[in-house]
Write a structure and sequence with these properties.
Organism: Clostridium simiarum
Low-confidence stretches: none
Pfam families: H2O2_YaaD
Number of strands: 10
Largest sheet: 8 strands, mixed
Helix content: 25-40%
Structural class: alpha/beta
Protein name: UPF0246 protein KQI89_01350
Number of domains: 1
Family: Belongs to the UPF0246 family.
Distance between the termini: 30 Å
Shape: globular
Radius of gyration: 18 Å
Length: about 260
């Protein structure tokens, strides 16, 4: 069983990490090819491409210009580098050594720059969302660039897995990079959905759903869950599995 989550725009490269072990991104050369395209852009062009402020455009311009494949300088393990709502729910700083080992084997972070990251893969500060329409050698956007690479990678990840279940805890922006037509048919993709009771009905509220994806990832990792039935027992922060609302590959969790 594997879990996929999204990265985060906000980063933390200051806080001391509790674990020193690290690994290297598998698609570092592919990331370098994207950086070459990004280095051609001015701060103004970056701002227009990404829809971000002048201050953020300049910051990312200098990030791209200084980026290289040297993983010894200005890098941090991905699971401790990202700092958004998903990662607050994940709370990797609470992981012990066994948790980190389980995460390294089962958790994958999809990335617009690095393609796929294991938790301990060292990364440099960057901003490149999967939905960005960056022209590259494969097409006009990052889906064209990463679709086949990431799908083939996930197929290989499941070659020796007994439980061929992919728990999709990534946002739609990232998860749709997987090419369903080319993903092996024996891989079952399951997407947990988190809903809140509001105004007499259950609704998805983005900020809560993001944190819940991190909470479920943490729950799976800390309890060493490797099957779908175990995931349905997820009960953190008041969530409960709702078989009556679940349909197909979507399993619904609600809280009042």
């Amino acid at each position: 069983m594997k879990i996929i989550i999204s990265p985060a725009k906000s980063l933390d490269f200051q806080r001391e990490t509790p674990h020193k072990e690290s690994s290297n991104p598998i698609f570092l050369n592919d990331a370098e090819d994207l950086i070459k395209e990004l280095k051609k852009l001015s701060p103004e062009e970056i701002g227009t491409l990404m829809g971000i402020s002048h201050k953020l455009s300049e910051m990312n311009f200098y990030r791209y210009q200084s980026w290289n494949k040297d993983l010894e300088e200005n890098t941090r393990q991905a699971i401790f580098a990202f700092d958004g709502d998903v990662y607050k729910g994940l709370n990797a700083y609470s992981f012990n050594k066994d948790d980190i080992g389980f995460a390294q084997n089962h958790l994958r972070i999809l990335s617009g720059l690095y393609g796929v990251l294991k938790p301990l893969d060292r990364i440099k500060p960057y901003r490149l969302e999967m939905g960005i329409k960056l022209k590259n050698k494969e097409g006009n956007n990052l889906y064209d660039y990463w679709k086949d690479i990431i799908t083939n990678y996930m197929n290989k990840e499941f070659e020796h897995e007994q439980e061929k279940v992919l728990i999709n805890l990534a946002s739609e922006e990232y998860s749709k990079v997987l090419n369903g037509n080319c993903l092996n048919k024996d891989i079952k993709v399951v997407s947990p959905i988190f809903k809140e009771y509001k105004n007499k009905s259950y609704k998805i509220i983005a900020v809560y759903a993001k944190k819940a994806r991190g909470l479920m990832s943490s729950y799976i990792i800390k309890n060493k869950i490797d099957n779908l039935n175990g995931i349905k027992r997820f009960d953190l922060d008041g969530y409960v599995f709702r078989e009556d609302l679940s349909l197909g590959n979507q399993i619904i969790f609600t809280r009042n």
